[in-house]
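Lab notebook, bench 4. Still working through the backlog of constructs that have no structural model yet. Next entry is a single chain of 375 residues. Request: give me the structure tokens for it.
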Amino acid sequence: MKCAMQVDDNSTGKKGCANIVELFFNLIRCGMGKCDCLSRVPGDVEWGELFEIAKKQTLLGIAFAGIERLPQEQRPPKDILLQWYKMCMLIKKSNADLNRKCAAVSEKFRSEGFENCILKGQGLAQLYPDPTLRTPGDIDVWLDGGDKKAIGYVRRFFPECKPTYHHVDFPIVPDLEIEIHYRPSWAYSPFAIKRLQRFFSSVANEQFGNYVNTPEGAFPVPDLAFNRVYVLLHIYRHLFFEGIGMRQILDYYYVLQQEMDDAEKRAFIADLRRFKLMKFAGALVYVMQQMFGLEQKLTFIRPNRKLGKFVLKEVMVAGNFGKYDHRYSLGEHEYSFKRGVEMMRRNMTLITRFPGEILWSPYFKIWHFFWRKRH
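Model written out:
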């Protein structure tokens, strides 16, 4: 019987293998098929805590897959097990529903003259051993044609929309969040922005024609070469913007699980150097080793233990999209002055680790204010 491995004693801020965070990592590894028992039997109270962490990190489905692999004596009490099962069934239903909507949304935009692809979300779910267990979110769709064309289209329906540099909300379907991206991502540095936008433009056509098939329909998603850079960049941006969730890191784990030949590895490393992501990539390698037992053969980027320990603690404190981070008042209205102040306060805690990004951020925010005035 394969039992869970131990993580770095200091990586979560507590000693030994018995703390609840390490038990949670063990449970997730079971859900990933890496082991089929925990290091010890959790108590009833601990199972309640494990459920709350799984909910906080939007990993209820993966954790439930782990529970199903456990021996009977290690499973949670019946009431918690039933609650977990119900949530898992809702996740599966939501995935099927969102797959259908992704196919319909993509086809609708294509009929309106926009080549497009679905970013993150349902595309990344297809890399999981069981795509139905990944907790789904909203629909992020990258449209070809530039910001003016996309924003003009949205304003036909919502004249008062408030676009940002890289996306605009498009609440055309009730109870469904759709974000239209005319740029997949951004950076604070103007030099980094130019490098990124040249990269996105150079590979756009390949992404718009790369379809994935699901039982509910087919839709275009980015290819693996794009996602190796883009998903990492997306996680990096969340570190400065809201916070990183464990699900985002698990997404990237499954991106890296896909095989690369030597030429692809060289191109990937070159992209990381070009976009100044090597240090952060090393931190994520360390985090994935601690959380998921990232295999040695995939650690072609040297782990950055010091920065990785910091990122790991941020993930466990903040939860999915930073919704559980009580250190900052980021839950205010998206465009409020208070939120801006809190974002700046948060970013200043990162200045010694990412000085380039943080020192460019005031410039970007001022420039972005006037950009939004013009758009």
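Notes after review: The mean pLDDT is 88. The first helix runs from residue 20 to 31. Flag for follow-up if needed.
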